Amino acid sequence: MEVAANCSLRVKRPLLDPRFEGYKLSLEPLPCYQLELDAAVAEVKLRDDQYTLEHMHAFGMYNYLHCDSWYQDSVYYVDSLGRIMNLTVMLDTALGKPREVFRLPTDLIAYDNRLCASMHFTSSTWVTLSDGTGRLYLIGTGERGNSASEKWEIMFNEELGNPFIIIHSISLLKAEEHSIATLLLRIEKEELDMKGSGFYVSLEWVTINKKSKDKKKYEITKRNILRGKSVPHYAAIEPNGNGLMIVSYKSFTFVQVGQNLEESKDEDMSEKIKEPLYYWQQTEDDLTVTISLPEDCTKEDIQIQFLPDHVNVVLKGQRFLEGNLYSSIDHESSTWIIKENNSLEISLIKKNEGLTWPELVVGDKQGEFIRDSAQCAAIAERLMHLTSDELNPNPDKGKPPCNAQELEECDIFFEESSSLCRFDGSTLKTTHVVNLGSNQYLFSVIVDPKEMPCFCLRHDVDALLWQPHSGNQDDMWEHIATFNALGYVQASKRDKKFFACAPNYSYAALCECLRRVFIYRQPTPMPTVLYNRKEGRQVGQVAKQQVASLETSDPILGFQATNERLFVLTTKNLFLIKVSTEN
């Protein structure tokens, strides 16, 4: 069985600035333009049965504004009339109204349990689209940047079950055979889950093909499903379609292709409720193992061999328990007896008295350890000095404990660390794993639409941008840019909703749930000479921070960044903030 390679992300030291002095607040005004929408954005609020944190991450914090990475400064949204509206900016001072490019054929109001409509710009001429009811559309658009050739036309549409949102898609052309692969996300009810939220996250990898012989018809050729317990921060298909990368708190695994999900649930549940093969207890001197015997089992059917570090139990000619013991026993003094309730009781005498065994047979998980109340009380008494009912009860004592009230949000270490996994498209196995530890995921951005989206992680106080390269097995993730101290700065923004950066890394920006947008520019040379008085040295460049306050009280529903502009979508307005660096 092949084991996934444990990898690490290699930071490029020349891209770090250890002498970065922070952001200087600039009061220079940012040109801001406001467009009133003809119809409100088609926002879908969470229902009463969508109450978990995963529902909030996936649907409650959904970005309703979509940026066409194939054409600069072109954004799209879906309005309440089911129209896909587009705004393409050529000149800030001559903004037109958003124009309709396509209308969903479904009457969305008729569906009670729908999700928000979602889309992904698969290529310069293809778009994948979901109406939020469980139907997937493939749209041929023509060259979207050319008004003469642009025409949105449905090339494929099919009902795929429960409602979903689209999170990524790619277009492939191999030997005159065109195919589109897309990733669909659902949060589904786990009927048999006795613990946790009662929901699981489903990622469906759907491949749709058109054979060269049939010029018109597209059909689904492959559907693979991954299951996990948390909404992925990042999920993308490799440009060649050979693999998939996911960043998430909880791991994802492929459900076996063709496997009936209900059957797999029943199997999982039967494993959960399976009785242990044996029970065992221990004192400081000995261990007691209790085994329920089969019917009609006599003394002659039982064979037990005691060795100093090994035990072997055979019942009716079948090996029942065998393996190396956790520690040594006095094999000559160890005994066994058949009890009146038709159970076998084995007594093992410890050679090292007082040693607590964490397991009976090394690596064996078929038994269950039973701890008696006296042992629990003794352990609690030994640990009593490590606990207190008060926070920092004696601060004057030497080496006072940490006061949690003094911790800032940016100091918090995440208990559950995320992982970055790469799955092979043919074997459906994990091939590469990166444990991200405390490297908090911040956002993703498309730098080159022909490559996979980049993802930004916090490293110490900085925010580092990583570009996946699926073709390079030895160095699959490249550090391409650094936003100095941004990891620390963003942690103080408690109301942040969306995070983004320019594709050319010239600035990063985040917006709050209401009104405010923060812009953090990369350091630029100063026109005048400045000196750092503390260190007595000349300062050659300064990084600026700017704040824009939108004239609206509506919540922000969408946020996108291009090299020159920021687009902010509210229920009734689309705002455009000119960000391009002054000459």
TrEMBL record:
It is found in: Cytoplasm; Nucleus. PROSITE patterns: CS. InterPro entries: CS_dom, HSP20-like_chaperone, NUDCD1. It comes from the Eukaryota. Gene3D superfamilies: 2.60.40.790. The keyword Nucleus applies. Residues 273-361 form the CS domain. GO terms for cellular component: cytoplasm; nucleus. Keywords: Cytoplasm, Nucleus, Phosphoprotein. Signal peptide: none annotated. This is NudC domain-containing protein 1.
